[in-house]
Design brief:
Length: about 280
């Protein structure tokens, strides 16, 4: 049976220790089990380790794998905003984390459900989810508080907005891309609320998830940044937003203090492939 063409993005920052087996797993799985065209694009930015070298090595073995590399500190959200500019290349566009928290078969399950909605998201908190949780108590509490805040502000009734596995139809991505401006880990809220407001249907399905060691999340700083960004998304969609412009310098100052990433401005990305050895 033929399946829709799929573009899978993997945002990656200092992932030299975690990404290699994940790329091989995805490359192999989708080559052997997917009935449509498959492209995997790793979106790197400002890595201070050899993630790029590792990605180049695996990309030489798998023609489906390539990457984008931005020097600026654009964050996970900023990286996905850039990656999603490649949406015209496929019917379905998705993303997963670089640490293998979502196995390829679980991502494939989300793609299979895209006929039922415009966006299908993996959920760790629906009955039927298979979880291998190793997060600290503090992290779990922060995550539940964040969930409450999101429900209070947006009323989307989504149980798990933060799961790293999501897929969308190309038309939905193209319709809301201009509304994406959150570069930090609250990017997912920005994306989901933009889809929700534009009338696209979001389907949450139970997924398989494994917490991995080596998280890039610094609990205090990341939580505070996500809190601010989430409130900001709400304000952007409120009628009072246009009166808040005098607060912009304060906002910029706080983000700078938190060393929070900002999205990239400028022309669309240029694809990079490793130089393949001449045969
Ligand atoms: N491009 C890019 N990716 C990032 C950045 N920060 C985190 N990521 C990626 O976002 C994904 C989720 O991060 P992770 O540390 O696994 O978060 P956790 O699983 O929620 O603890 C991983 O693929 C990271 O490499 C960043 O600044 N830039
Ligand atoms: Mg992770």
């Amino acid at each position: 049976m033929s399946e829709p063409s799929l573009l899978l993005l993997i945002p990656a920052y200092n992932e030299e220790q975690r990404i290699e087996p994940v790329l091989r797993d995805y490359g192999r799985y989708f080559r052997d089990h997917y009935g449509g065209s498959f492209q995997l694009v790793v979106v790197l930015n400002g890595c201070r380790d050899n993630t790029r070298g590792v990605v180049e090595t695996v990309a030489r073995e798998f023609p489906s794998i390539s990457f984008l590399d931005f020097p600026e500190p654009i964050g996970k959200g900023g990286a996905l905003i850039e990656g999603l500019k490649l949406a015209p290349r496929a019917d379905v566009i998705g993303y997963v984390d670089a640490d293998g928290a979502t196995p390829p078969a679980a991502l494939h399950d989300l793609v299979r459900r895209i006929g039922e909605a415009d966006c299908v998201i993996g959920s760790r908190w629906l009955p039927g989810a298979r979880l291998h949780v190793a997060q600290s108590r503090k992290r779990r509490i922060a995550s539940r508080l964040f969930h409450l805040l999101v429900q209070l502000l947006f009323h989307m009734n989504i149980k798990d907005t933060q799961c790293g596995a999501k897929v969308m139809r190309r038309e939905a991505v193209e319709a809301i891309h201009h509304a994406l401006r959150i570069a930090d880990m609250a990017f997912d809220i920005n994306l989901l609320y933009a889809l929700h407001r534009a009338g696209f249907r979001i389907l949450e399905v139970p997924t398989e998830w494994t917490d991995k060691v080596g998280s890039k999340v610094k609990l205090f700083r990341t939580s505070l940044t996500m809190f601010l960004s989430t409130v900001r998304v709400r304000l952007i969609y409120s009628p009072v937003y246009k009166w808040l412009w005098p607060l912009r310098p304060l906002e910029a100052w706080i983000y700078k203090k938190l060393r929070a990433p900002v999205p990239r401005s400028g022309p669309p990305p240029e694809m990079q492939s490793p130089t393949r050895p001449k045969s």
